[in-house]
Write a structure and sequence with these properties.
Structural class of chain A: mainly alpha
Oligomer: heterodimer
Helix content of chain A: 25-40%
Number of domains of chain A: 2
Order of helices and strands of chain A: HHEEHHHHEEEEHHE
CATH topology of the largest domain in chain A: Cytochrome Bc1 Complex, Chain D, domain 2
Shape of chain A: globular
Strand content of chain A: 5-15%
Shape of chain B: elongated
CATH architecture of the largest domain in chain A: Orthogonal Bundle
Distance between the termini of chain A: 11 Å
Largest sheet of chain B: 5 strands, mixed
CATH superfamily of the largest domain in chain A: Cytochrome c-like domain
Strand order of the largest sheet of chain B: 2-8-7-4-5
Largest interface: A-B, 11 and 14 residues
CATH superfamily of chain B: Immunoglobulins
Number of strands of chain A: 7
Strand order of the largest sheet of chain A: 6-5-7
Helix content of chain B: under 10%
Structural class of chain B: mainly beta
CATH class of chain B: Mainly Beta
Largest sheet of chain A: 3 strands, mixed
Number of helices of chain B: 0
Number of strands of chain B: 8
CATH architecture of chain B: Sandwich
Distance between the termini of chain B: 34 Å
Number of domains of chain B: 1
Chain lengths: ~220, ~110
């Protein structure tokens, strides 16, 4: 399903993004295309996200970068997290990095944030008192109920999940996992979620971007 | 409602068969679920999909609540002349949508 673009339901969002890309918005009355040209001009960049943002002095995800473009360059309001336009634009940028190996600069200012993400990944939490690593490293390849436990490589987001029957972002998947171990889910745009995404991107170094992935 | 993704070959040889793939964008809300406040979410599914090729009906499909969101349909047709392939679908809200793709037969 994922390998055949005509079957991949995430391409409905790609279709939506193609028209959003050229839609002018905000006080600056500019579209994505006015600055960036065709989406193909952003080839390969999704493989380097989450990336360092010097203004925020923190790593930001690709979706946050798109919203930053909207507020600073377009003068338009943020897209809400998990909204269709935001997922669509993140997907079309990710799509043009498909097949590129994940490559995060681990030596620069991102280093402490990667370590913070790694610590969170290995910290037990919730009523079930499980860390991410308990399932996705110790028990990867085993089964949880009927479902295969994956290694937890975040190289295909935003991804279409059959369970959700729509496209979803990495923070949404993380919230689902946290609810599963009965922990308190992270709020939208939580720095902790970005740190975990960042750590997972370094952990999956060399794996190819699969955006938009299809998962059960 | 976003447009569907329709995939047919650009050119087809006369007399040969070809696949038509259509991915419709629709939530296919089954009517069995409740929202966070316990209120029933009304059913909203695509009731029927209808396809004509050069004015002739080639398939009519009835869909039911058990079908997942964004239904994907694949069927075959035999090429006999160039012409428009017209897809029409109607959902529970009574919205009838259509999309057209032109087929070139050589």
């Amino acid at each position: 399903m994922q390998d055949d673009d005509t079957q991949n339901p995430a391409f409905l969002w790609v279709l939506q993004a193609e028209s959003l890309w050229t839609t002018r918005a905000g006080t600056a009355n500019k579209s994505c295309a006015d600055c960036h040209g065709a989406p193909a001009a952003l080839k390969g960049i999704a493989a380097h996200y989450p990336a360092w943002n010097s203004a925020a002095a923190a790593p930001i995800t690709l979706a946050q970068r798109i919203n930053l473009c909207r507020t600073t360059h377009q003068g338009a309001p943020d897209f809400p997290p998990e909204s269709d336009p935001l997922l669509a634009l993140t997907t079309i940028v990710g799509l043009h990095s498909r097949g590129q190996p994940l490559d995060i600069d681990e030596t620069g200012p991102l280093k402490p944030f990667i370590q913070a993400g790694q610590t969170l990944f290995n910290t037990r939490q919730g009523q079930l008192n499980l860390s991410c690593a308990n399932c996705h490293e110790d028990r990867a390849g085993h089964r949880l109920g009927g479902a295969l436990i994956p290694e937890g490589h975040a190289n295909g987001y935003p991804q279409y999940r059959l369970e959700w029957q729509k496209l979803g972002s990495f923070p949404r998947r993380l919230r689902a996992c946290m609810l599963g171990v009965r922990a308190e889910p992270l709020p939208p745009n939580a720095p902790d979620a970005t740190n975990i995404e960042l750590y997972l991107a370094t952990r999956a170094r060399g794996l190819k971007v699969e955006t938009p992935a299809v998962r059960p | 409602m976003p447009r569907p993704l329709i995939n047919i070959p650009r050119k087809v040889k006369r007399g040969s068969s070809f696949d038509i793939r259509i991915l419709l964008a629709h939530p296919m809300e089954s009517g069995q679920r409740r929202d966070d406040f316990g209120k029933a979410i009304p059913r909203d599914i695509i009731r029927s999909v209808h396809c004509t090729y050069a004015g002739e009906e080639i398939i009519r499909v009835d869909l039911f609540p058990a079908i997942a969101a964004n239904p994907f349909l694949v069927f075959s047709a035999r090429a006999f002349e160039s012409g428009p392939i017209v897809f029409t679908w109607t959902d529970d809200q009574g919205v009838a949508s259509f999309d057209t793709v032109d087929l070139v037969v050589e």
